[in-house]
Write the structure tokens for this entry.
Amino acid sequence: MTGTTVIRNASWVIAWDADSGRHTYLNDADVAFEGDRIISIGGTYEGEIEREIDGRGRLVSPGLVNIHSHPLSEPMNKGFLDELGSPRLYMSSLYEFMPLFRPDEEGTKACTEVALSELLLSGVTTLTDLSVPYDAWIDLLDRSGIRAVLAPMYRSARWFTKNGHVVEYEWDEDAGREAMAKAMSVIDEANVHPSGRLSGMVSPSQIDTCSADLIRDSFDEAQSRGIKFQIHAAQSVVEFHEITRRHGLTPLEWLDDLGVLKPGAIIGHGIFLNSHSSVHWPEADDFGLLRDSGAAVAHCPTVFQRRGIAMQSVGRYIRSGIPVGLGTDTYPHNMLEEMRNALYNSRLMSGNPFDLRTHHIFDAATVGGASILGRDDIGRLSKGAKADLFIADITHPAMRPLRDPIRSLVYVAAERAVRDVFVDGRQVVSDGKVEAFDLDDATARLEEAQRRAEDQFQKLDFADRTHLEASPLVYEAGT
């Protein structure tokens, strides 16, 4: 659409106040955009319009910015990993179970369609997609209408366990280099995509599966291209002990030693600093190192809280000036629920309801994530910014009684209140329905892929378990 669209008399608008450098509420205000840009916000728009949307009973919000997500696989884990961890691997599910339950090619497409739909329905307009490259990837992201940062993952080794209590690594440096070269090609393709909504990020997969040279060269590649770098690090106790065993340094100390813990780097998760209660490594100062480095953290609380794991605490990180953005590392790909979990977990870990305030986490999910990605034209509603926004129904029962719309949305209603979403001025969700995909069909195909993965599980498992033995149903099926 190239004409002007006006959301007329919106009951609440979360506008950006450039003078104070923060979001602010407006009431009974117009929001107008033309093409891919916001041209007016606040007051009454008097210019010519092509489309008018009634904003009465509506909240208009900047679109959410997600800096860490895995759409290609995570939706299929629903019902399998909800309460499953490895008791002999510090309750992580990364090493024993996740490599055994994976989608095939058709399942990958179904996973991605479901995840992208969930993201859009929860108000996400910008997504960082950390996936292993596959043929349909760019086409699916383009078709969805979302603004996407492609972070094709690659590594020097794969992890596995033969007994459920020791993690081993199978190294292949040449394969890692080949995968890195392929990733750079994907990034180049994304950066010149005709939609203008796709871009790239350099992302060696995990700190413990990548050689020192691969990590250093990856960061140099990101710096030379003027794009961001993201790596999973400090994400498990297993990884913490593995890196300290190899190098005598904590994961963050090792990244610093490699010269990559600096502005432009994003640490995926960053939970297990030396001060975390689950590790005992007192002669270090990871927190100070991170705080002073300029590196950012992608915080994804939901996937960890399932295992009884939490950052200690994200409120402390944010108050200390560490750049923090939010992501949806797992199912559901629901940014509003992720925001809620971040708030509750931070308060629980600190024992303090004032440890993290709602505005901190809303900022992390909007302007904070945008800043980490190097953007000042998304995550905010201001004149000249991208027309990336969502509209929520404040008359929805879950939003009422309405005193503060962000609190009602984050703590209660979540995606149930989101009705319409726009990216680059193009409507991608209409009245609660994703325009690009048939979600019913995608979930049906996902269920079929899940059945196929169940059939393959026992063949891959070192312990020769069926999927039902590894992850029993809540109740036994009756006869």
